[in-house]
Specification:
It is built from 6 helices and 8 strands. The protein is of the alpha+beta class. The chain has one domain: 3-methyladenine DNA Glycosylase, Chain A (Roll). The longest helix has 9 residues.
């Protein structure tokens, strides 16, 4: 079955509302799976499907940036749900998060992997310096947090952007059934490692790691 590629009109009409993000973070994390992420690059609207996420809950999660309290770096995490939190890590990579819950809480969901649906030439030029990616390169365009930001040209400039904007937003798609979602421990962290707050779409080839 071919992948459904929505029109810009469909995406705009079905943009996720602020209330979607202002809920319990673990619920939002699961519900983000299969949603469309839209990013305007040049004159094109690049569409990707979210296939893997990790939840970070500030008040009980030592791996969350917000666990230590509000700082200049994590300030956006404490804003009301529905904004982008972009941070720099390892001195070389940006990572993209969706702020959840209500103001002052400090929760966010890391977008770990997405499935590109169009703009393969633009995304590949950003990632691999070529407009003609191989099949394997297409699978690797956005199958990791840093890869996503590189492919979509996301940096600190996008930190704090409201997801009600017209150039970066999320759009609705059908909710997955429980049996379509895999829940595991999170990856690449050293604190709160036993919390099972990583979620991904079962059998999707674009996730970062099974």
């Amino acid at each position: 079955m071919s992948e459904f590629i929505p029109t810009l009109e469909f995406l705009t009409l079905n943009k996720l509302t602020p209330s979607f993000y202002k809920r319990d973070t673990l619920i939002v994390a699961k519900d983000l799976l299969n949603k469309f992420f839209v990013r305007k690059l040049n004159d094109s609207f690049c569409i990707l499907k979210i296939v893997e996420v990790e939840a970070y809950v500030g008040n009980c999660d030592q791996a969350a940036h917000s666990f230590i309290g509000q700082t200049q770096r994590n300030n956006v995490m404490f804003q009301t749900g529905g904004q982008l939190y972009v941070y720099f890590t390892y001195g070389m990579h940006y990572c993209l998060n969706v702020v959840t819950s209500t103001e002052g809480i400090g929760d966010a969901v890391l977008i770990r992997a997405m499935q590109p649906l169009n703009c393969f030439d633009i995304l590949s030029l950003n990632r691999f310096n070529t407009k003609e990616p191989t099949h394997q390169q297409i699978k690797n365009l956005a199958n990791g947090p840093a890869k996503i930001c590189q492919a979509l040209n996301i940096s600190k400039n996008e930190n704090g952007i409201d997801l009600q904007s017209d150039f970066i937003f999320l759009s609705n798609n059908k909710l997955l059934l429980p049996e379509e979602i895999i829940q595991t421990k999170r990856i690449g962290i050293k604190k709160s490692v036993d919390l099972p707050w990583r979620f991904y779409i079962k059998n999707n080839p674009y996730i970062s790691k099974k």
